[in-house]
Known about the structure:
Layout: H1 5-28, H2 36-60, H3 70-91, H4 98-123, H5 135-158, H6 163-224
Amino acid sequence: MWRNRELLAALLAVVVITAVYLAVVLWLGIPRASGLFGHSLGIVGFAMMLLTESAYSLRKREMVRPRGPLRSWLRAHIFTGIVGPYLVLLHTSWAFNGLAGVLTLMMALVVGSGFIGRYFYTLVPRTADGVVLEARELQALVESTRAEIAATEAALARGGASDADRRQERDAIARLGTLERQVGALRWARRALATWHVVHIPIGLAMFVLAFAHIVAAIWYATLLK
């Protein structure tokens, strides 16, 4: 269960935010997007969405000083990628006409695509730090595990293996099976992720272009034309 703790944390945040939102609705009615509370939801949500699109990508490409394992950055990426759009959704005041409606649809597509990408991500073998294992590294692990099994079998044939050696052989056989499955899945997972990036990145860029257009329009009509 704790392997998905970023999803549990996001769910908890959504529950807390929903409780606060409902309390405001019962007290004041549905918050207007142009009101203080509605604006605050939009600003915080959009900031989290910007963080989602930038921080993990920069860390993955080592464009920022590494602080913490890559897996932790991915978990933060998933958390902000769920909570941020939810805040923006609440900011809409449930009015989806015009540009706001198109933007909401794009945001839903990006979030849905993100869940698909997370599934593909789990199929790619990685180290404990989240670094991708290359095919040659997996093959080296396969060969070393096979050599370990062969050495134990040779000792068994000579009658020189202990019970601990037999347990170690069983563990090595199980590990070899896992490694061979990973080798078989690696190529498919890489192709799936490459295809996913081709779809996800343009949708995300289009969403942010629309978001900035929405922000400029909101400032223009709500502030400059008063």
